[in-house]
Amino acid sequence: MIRVLIADDEAMIRAGVRAILSTDPGIDIVAEAADGHDAVELVRRHRPQVAVLDIRMPKVSGIEAAAEIHRTVPTTGVIMLTTFGEDDYILQALGGGAAGFLIKSGEPEELITGVRAVADGAAYLSPKVAARVVAHLASSGAGALASRRGAARERVNGLTAREREVLSFLGSGLSNGQIARRLHVVEGTVKAHVSSVLARLGVDNRAAAAVVAHEAGIVPPPAPDQH
Protein backbone atom coordinates (compact mmCIF):
# COMPACT_ATOMS: atom_id res chain seq x y z
CA MET A 1 0.00 0.00 0.00
CA ILE A 2 1.38 3.42 -1.00
CA ARG A 3 0.91 5.96 1.81
CA VAL A 4 0.27 9.49 0.51
CA LEU A 5 -0.06 12.96 2.01
CA ILE A 6 -1.92 15.72 0.14
CA ALA A 7 -1.24 19.43 0.74
CA ASP A 8 -3.07 22.30 -0.97
CA ASP A 9 -4.60 25.46 0.47
CA GLU A 10 -7.73 24.95 -1.67
CA ALA A 11 -10.11 22.40 -0.15
CA MET A 12 -11.65 21.65 -3.54
CA ILE A 13 -8.27 20.75 -5.04
CA ARG A 14 -7.47 18.50 -2.08
CA ALA A 15 -10.83 16.78 -2.48
CA GLY A 16 -10.21 16.28 -6.20
CA VAL A 17 -6.74 14.82 -5.66
CA ARG A 18 -8.07 12.57 -2.90
CA ALA A 19 -10.95 11.38 -5.11
CA ILE A 20 -8.60 10.51 -7.98
CA LEU A 21 -6.05 8.70 -5.84
CA SER A 22 -8.78 6.84 -3.96
CA THR A 23 -9.76 5.07 -7.18
CA ASP A 24 -6.50 3.10 -6.88
CA PRO A 25 -6.87 0.40 -4.19
CA GLY A 26 -3.12 0.38 -3.75
CA ILE A 27 -3.01 4.00 -2.52
CA ASP A 28 -3.89 5.14 1.02
CA ILE A 29 -4.35 8.84 1.87
CA VAL A 30 -2.88 9.13 5.38
CA ALA A 31 -3.03 12.91 5.92
CA GLU A 32 -4.01 16.25 4.40
CA ALA A 33 -2.69 19.76 4.97
CA ALA A 34 -3.70 23.27 3.91
CA ASP A 35 -0.23 24.84 4.06
CA GLY A 36 3.42 23.94 3.69
CA HIS A 37 4.27 24.11 7.39
CA ASP A 38 1.59 21.61 8.36
CA ALA A 39 2.60 19.41 5.41
CA VAL A 40 6.16 19.13 6.73
CA GLU A 41 4.96 18.33 10.26
CA LEU A 42 2.51 15.70 9.02
CA VAL A 43 5.18 14.08 6.83
CA ARG A 44 7.43 13.83 9.88
CA ARG A 45 4.57 12.26 11.85
CA HIS A 46 3.15 9.85 9.26
CA ARG A 47 6.22 9.13 7.10
CA PRO A 48 4.27 8.67 3.84
CA GLN A 49 6.03 7.35 0.77
CA VAL A 50 4.76 10.26 -1.32
CA ALA A 51 3.75 13.85 -0.52
CA VAL A 52 1.66 15.66 -3.15
CA LEU A 53 2.18 19.41 -2.62
CA ASP A 54 0.73 22.50 -4.25
CA ILE A 55 3.69 24.51 -5.48
CA ARG A 56 2.30 27.73 -3.93
CA MET A 57 0.83 27.68 -0.41
CA PRO A 58 0.58 30.18 2.49
CA LYS A 59 3.05 30.37 5.39
CA VAL A 60 5.48 27.91 3.84
CA SER A 61 5.42 27.39 0.06
CA GLY A 62 5.38 24.00 -1.59
CA ILE A 63 8.94 24.64 -2.77
CA GLU A 64 10.16 25.34 0.77
CA ALA A 65 8.21 22.39 2.13
CA ALA A 66 9.66 20.08 -0.53
CA ALA A 67 13.20 21.13 0.35
CA GLU A 68 12.58 20.61 4.07
CA ILE A 69 10.97 17.21 3.50
CA HIS A 70 13.87 16.18 1.25
CA ARG A 71 16.31 17.25 3.99
CA THR A 72 14.58 15.75 7.04
CA VAL A 73 12.53 12.83 5.63
CA PRO A 74 14.38 11.79 2.45
CA THR A 75 12.40 8.55 2.23
CA THR A 76 9.31 10.60 1.26
CA GLY A 77 9.19 11.49 -2.41
CA VAL A 78 7.60 14.83 -3.29
CA ILE A 79 5.31 15.58 -6.23
CA MET A 80 4.61 19.23 -6.99
CA LEU A 81 1.23 20.29 -8.36
CA THR A 82 1.44 23.37 -10.55
CA THR A 83 -0.63 25.44 -12.96
CA PHE A 84 0.27 27.17 -16.19
CA GLY A 85 2.11 30.42 -15.56
CA GLU A 86 4.18 29.11 -12.65
CA ASP A 87 7.26 28.25 -14.70
CA ASP A 88 9.65 30.16 -12.44
CA TYR A 89 8.42 28.14 -9.46
CA ILE A 90 8.94 24.89 -11.37
CA LEU A 91 12.54 25.84 -12.10
CA GLN A 92 13.10 26.60 -8.41
CA ALA A 93 11.51 23.32 -7.35
CA LEU A 94 13.74 21.36 -9.73
CA GLY A 95 16.64 22.15 -7.44
CA GLY A 96 14.70 21.66 -4.23
CA GLY A 97 14.48 17.89 -4.15
CA ALA A 98 11.07 17.39 -5.74
CA ALA A 99 10.79 14.09 -7.61
CA GLY A 100 7.67 14.76 -9.65
CA PHE A 101 5.84 17.61 -11.36
CA LEU A 102 2.22 17.54 -12.54
CA ILE A 103 -0.14 20.09 -14.07
CA LYS A 104 -3.38 20.43 -12.07
CA SER A 105 -5.39 20.41 -15.29
CA GLY A 106 -3.73 17.19 -16.49
CA GLU A 107 -5.33 13.80 -16.94
CA PRO A 108 -6.33 12.00 -13.69
CA GLU A 109 -4.33 8.94 -14.78
CA GLU A 110 -1.16 11.07 -14.75
CA LEU A 111 -1.60 11.72 -11.03
CA ILE A 112 -1.79 8.02 -10.22
CA THR A 113 1.11 7.23 -12.57
CA GLY A 114 3.19 9.96 -10.95
CA VAL A 115 2.48 8.78 -7.41
CA ARG A 116 3.32 5.18 -8.29
CA ALA A 117 6.53 6.22 -10.06
CA VAL A 118 7.75 8.37 -7.15
CA ALA A 119 6.79 5.68 -4.62
CA ASP A 120 8.94 3.34 -6.71
CA GLY A 121 11.93 5.60 -6.09
CA ALA A 122 11.70 7.03 -9.59
CA ALA A 123 10.64 10.48 -10.76
CA TYR A 124 7.79 11.72 -12.90
CA LEU A 125 7.90 14.84 -15.05
CA SER A 126 4.61 15.39 -16.80
CA PRO A 127 5.16 15.92 -20.55
CA LYS A 128 3.16 19.14 -20.22
CA VAL A 129 5.47 20.37 -17.44
CA ALA A 130 8.58 19.48 -19.44
CA ALA A 131 7.21 21.37 -22.43
CA ARG A 132 6.47 24.41 -20.24
CA VAL A 133 9.97 24.37 -18.73
CA VAL A 134 11.65 24.21 -22.13
CA ALA A 135 9.35 26.93 -23.49
CA HIS A 136 10.12 29.12 -20.48
CA LEU A 137 13.84 28.66 -20.99
CA ALA A 138 13.32 29.56 -24.64
CA SER A 139 11.75 32.89 -23.65
CA SER A 140 15.18 34.13 -22.63
CA GLY A 141 15.94 34.58 -26.33
CA ALA A 142 16.92 32.60 -29.38
CA GLY A 143 20.63 32.89 -28.66
CA ALA A 144 20.27 31.67 -25.10
CA LEU A 145 18.01 28.82 -26.22
CA ALA A 146 20.45 27.72 -28.90
CA SER A 147 23.23 27.82 -26.33
CA ARG A 148 21.25 25.70 -23.85
CA ARG A 149 20.28 23.20 -26.54
CA GLY A 150 23.85 22.98 -27.75
CA ALA A 151 25.11 22.45 -24.22
CA ALA A 152 22.45 19.80 -23.59
CA ARG A 153 23.36 17.92 -26.77
CA GLU A 154 27.04 18.04 -25.83
CA ARG A 155 26.26 16.57 -22.40
CA VAL A 156 24.06 13.88 -23.92
CA ASN A 157 26.79 13.00 -26.45
CA GLY A 158 28.97 12.04 -23.48
CA LEU A 159 26.56 9.23 -22.58
CA THR A 160 26.66 5.69 -23.87
CA ALA A 161 23.97 4.60 -26.33
CA ARG A 162 22.12 2.74 -23.57
CA GLU A 163 22.35 5.72 -21.22
CA ARG A 164 20.90 8.01 -23.92
CA GLU A 165 18.07 5.54 -24.35
CA VAL A 166 17.39 5.55 -20.60
CA LEU A 167 17.50 9.36 -20.57
CA SER A 168 14.93 9.57 -23.36
CA PHE A 169 12.62 7.33 -21.31
CA LEU A 170 13.13 9.59 -18.29
CA GLY A 171 12.11 12.54 -20.44
CA SER A 172 8.96 10.65 -21.43
CA GLY A 173 8.02 10.26 -17.76
CA LEU A 174 8.52 6.50 -17.47
CA SER A 175 9.18 4.81 -14.13
CA ASN A 176 12.06 2.42 -13.47
CA GLY A 177 9.75 -0.54 -13.90
CA GLN A 178 8.41 0.73 -17.22
CA ILE A 179 11.92 1.39 -18.51
CA ALA A 180 13.02 -2.08 -17.41
CA ARG A 181 10.17 -3.64 -19.37
CA ARG A 182 10.99 -1.58 -22.46
CA LEU A 183 14.64 -2.62 -22.32
CA HIS A 184 13.95 -6.21 -21.18
CA VAL A 185 16.25 -5.89 -18.19
CA VAL A 186 15.79 -5.99 -14.40
CA GLU A 187 15.04 -2.81 -12.45
CA GLY A 188 18.39 -2.95 -10.71
CA THR A 189 20.10 -2.51 -14.07
CA VAL A 190 17.90 0.49 -14.85
CA LYS A 191 18.71 2.07 -11.48
CA ALA A 192 22.42 1.68 -12.20
CA HIS A 193 22.01 3.33 -15.61
CA VAL A 194 19.99 6.19 -14.09
CA SER A 195 22.65 6.81 -11.43
CA SER A 196 25.29 6.93 -14.14
CA VAL A 197 23.19 9.29 -16.26
CA LEU A 198 22.69 11.71 -13.36
CA ALA A 199 26.41 11.70 -12.54
CA ARG A 200 27.47 12.22 -16.16
CA LEU A 201 24.95 15.02 -16.72
CA GLY A 202 25.86 16.68 -13.43
CA VAL A 203 22.25 16.92 -12.20
CA ASP A 204 20.85 16.11 -8.77
CA ASN A 205 17.58 14.42 -9.69
CA ARG A 206 15.73 12.63 -12.45
CA ALA A 207 13.34 15.49 -13.08
CA ALA A 208 16.25 17.78 -13.94
CA ALA A 209 17.67 15.04 -16.18
CA ALA A 210 14.32 14.92 -17.99
CA VAL A 211 14.61 18.63 -18.76
CA VAL A 212 18.06 18.02 -20.28
CA ALA A 213 16.52 15.27 -22.42
CA HIS A 214 13.89 17.68 -23.73
CA GLU A 215 16.45 20.41 -24.39
CA ALA A 216 18.63 17.97 -26.28
CA GLY A 217 15.65 16.90 -28.38
CA ILE A 218 15.88 13.18 -27.65
CA VAL A 219 12.34 12.78 -26.27
CA PRO A 220 9.62 11.61 -28.69
CA PRO A 221 6.80 14.17 -29.04
CA PRO A 222 3.79 13.51 -26.78
CA ALA A 223 0.66 11.96 -28.20
CA PRO A 224 -1.97 14.45 -29.48
CA ASP A 225 -4.16 14.02 -26.39
CA GLN A 226 -1.30 15.17 -24.15
CA HIS A 227 -1.41 18.73 -25.49
Keywords summarizing the entry:
2 domains, Rossmann fold, alpha/beta, globular, 227 residues, disordered C terminus, six-stranded parallel beta sheet, single chain
Short description:
This protein is α/β, with parallel strands linked by helices.
What does this structure look like?
- The chain is of the alpha/beta class and about 230 residues long.
- It has two domains: about 1-120, Response regulator (Rossmann fold), CATH 3.40.50; about 135-225, Rossmann fold, CATH 3.40.50.
- Helices cover about 55% and strands about 15% of the residues.
- The protein has helices spanning about 10-20, 35-45, 60-70, 85-95, 110-120, 125-140, 140-155, 160-170, 175-185, 185-200, 205-215, and strands at about 1-5, 25-35, 50-55, 75-80, 100-105, 125.
- A six-stranded parallel β-sheet has the order 2-1-3-4-5-6, with helices on both faces.
- Strand 3 (about 50-55), helix 3 and strand 4 form a beta-alpha-beta unit.
- Helix 7 crosses helix 11, helix 8 packs across helix 10 (about 185-200) and helix 9 packs across helix 10.
- The radius of gyration is 17 Å and the shape is globular.
- The model is unreliable at about 225 (pLDDT under 50).
